[in-house]
Amino acid sequence: MNCIVVYKTKYGSTEAYARHIAEALGCECVEAKQTDIDKLVQYDCIVYGGGLYAEVINGIGLINKNLDKLSDKKIVVFTTGITPIHYREYYDDEVLERNYKNGVPSNIRIFNFLGKMKLDELTVTHRAALVALKKIMTAKKNPKPLEKLLIELCDADGDFTNLEDARALIEYVKSL
Ligand SMILES: Cc1cc2nc3c(=O)[nH]c(=O)nc-3n(C[C@H](O)[C@H](O)[C@H](O)COP(=O)(O)O)c2cc1C
């Protein structure tokens, strides 16, 4: 089975996972902007990685807008984000719903890894977005669990990347 790893990254976390996965699979690794759907259809298996930004998987349109052309492919999507993995409710309800309104297609399998958010590396726009989000959530009288989590996440500062976590994805692709 021929496979390609495609990624979109802003601060490098998704790229680190993408390169690690491609190396383990012995396959090509390209940045999303350096490829297109005409190239992707030449592969049996496409691994796509993107960071989460306000629950949206960065650049996922490359896959989701071309689902008809990719219907006979095995697709593996991985996200990187700072939401702790054990917040399954957050992940299932918010992230999947946000990115797959009609449900996740049967040929797509999704993995979620921890990424990094180092405040001193963030762009001015991203820093301002986090300040605004925190302000909105803090102003809520009876914040829901997800809103409380978001307040906490706005203050996260660190690199939580753990390439070992990609093992499950690698094993899954090898089993296809
Ligand atoms: C403005 C902004 C919004 C973010 N939104 C989320 C989010 O909704 N969920 C999450 O888990 N992480 C979120 N993050 C953290 C990023 O997803 C995390 O830093 C990721 O590793 C970035 O990947 P990249 O460096 O490959 O782009 C956000 C970060 C920023 C700066």
Would you kindly provide a written description of the structure presented here, covering whatever features stand out?
The chain is of the alpha/beta class. It has two domains: 3-117 and 158-175, Rossmann fold (3-Layer(aba) Sandwich), CATH 3.40.50; 119-156. It has helices spanning 13-25, 37-40, 61-64, 88-99, 124-138, 145-154, 167-175; strands at residues 3-8, 28-31, 45-53, 56-57, 74-81, 108-114, 116-117, 158-159. Strands 1, 2, 3, 4, 5 and 6 form a six-stranded mixed sheet that branches. Helix 5 (124-138) packs antiparallel against helix 6 (145-154). The structure holds flavin mononucleotide. Residues 9-14, 51-55, 58, 80-83, 115-117, 122, 126, 129-130 line the site of flavin mononucleotide.
Instruction: Report the bound ligands by name, code or SMILES.
Output: flavin mononucleotide
Strand proportion: 15-25%
| CATH domain fold name of the largest domain | Rossmann fold
If helices are DSSP runs of H or I spanning 4 or more residues, what is the number of helices? 7
> Tell me, what's the shape?
globular
Give a count of the beta strands, DSSP E runs of length 2 or more: 8
Describe this protein with a few key phrases.
176 residues; alpha/beta; Rossmann fold; 2 domains; globular; binds flavin mononucleotide
